[in-house]
Amino acid sequence: MPGFGMLTDTFDDGVRDPVLWSGSYGDVEEAGGRARVPCTTAFSAYQSAAVYTLTGSQVACRVYPPAAGGAAGEALAELLVITAVGGTDGGFSLNRVTGLLKLISRTGYADANEVVLTYDPVAHAWLRLREASGLLLWETSPDGGTWTARRTAPAAAWTADTNLSVILAGHRDSGSGDFAEFDNFNLLRRARLTSASPAGAALAPLERSAPAMSGSPA
After folding, report:
1. Is residue 24 assigned to a domain?
2. By the 8 A CB rule, do 130 and 58 touch?
3. Is residue 187 part of a domain?
């Protein structure tokens, strides 16, 4: 079964790849070299096929969040790994209304141990969720090369499932419609962990040069 590291996309050709992102919904498009996802009161996302595993692999990309735009409670950009069980997922949820970045691993739509950061558009420009040696790590980077682990936890059993998908999503509860944008999915610089990473993170260094699928350059 393929790991998520096999899924790469630059979003540079102006056409959503119908093989890589076969589960997509809403009026998503490629524009300006990015995956552009409407952030409206509807639900929209780039979504991969449900054929991947997270074990020994990663999902990562550059994230450009929407403006708050007068939303009452949420204007979201999300990078999430989705399971076949509703409400069981993991990844990042960025809310421009609250200015908070949540690092989540949910069961039944809840995570009692979620980590919440004040969003920093420089330090948190890139987001990565990965599994290695039984650990699940949530990491951020300013440049896609130097990574800091912000949360580390034992990997949930679902990370070994072989029917996972990933979504790049946008949604708001009200206000003016906008876009969440994403770029360079799983296309990173030579990766390294910083000295600020918590104990345990160094057990799973990651340097990937994953082969591309369906015409997406590595």
Report:
1. yes
2. yes
3. yes
Other Cβ atoms closer than 10 A to 11:
28
Q: Which of 166, 36, 169 is nearest to 95 (CA)?
A: 169
Show the domain range for 186. Answer: 4-203
Is residue 178 within 8 Å of 96, Cβ to Cβ? no
Q: Facing residues of 95 across strands? A: 76, 100
DSSP for 150-197 reads EEEEEPPGGGG-SSBEEEEEEEESSSS-EEEEEE-BT--SS-EE-TTS
Q: Which residue would you say has higher pLDDT here, 178 or 206? A: 178
Cα-based torsion angle of the residue sequence 127, 188, 22, 164 in order, rounded to the nearest 10 degrees: -60
Query: Residue 27 is which amino acid?
Result: D
Q: Are 82 and 105 in contact (CB under 8 A)?
A: no
In a domain, 211, yes or no: no
Question: Is residue 216 one of the residues assigned to a domain?
Answer: no
Residue 207's nearest CA partner among 161, 152, 146, 165 is 146
The whole-model pTM stands at 0.87
Q: Residue 190 — very low, low, confident or very high, per pLDDT cuts 50/70/90?
A: low
**pLDDT at 218 exceeding the cut of 50:** no
SS3 content of the chain, % helix, strand, coil (to 5): 5, 45, 50
Give residue for tokens 């990933």: 166
Overall number of domains in the chain? 1
Q: What is the CATH number of the domain that holds 129?
A: 2.60.120.200
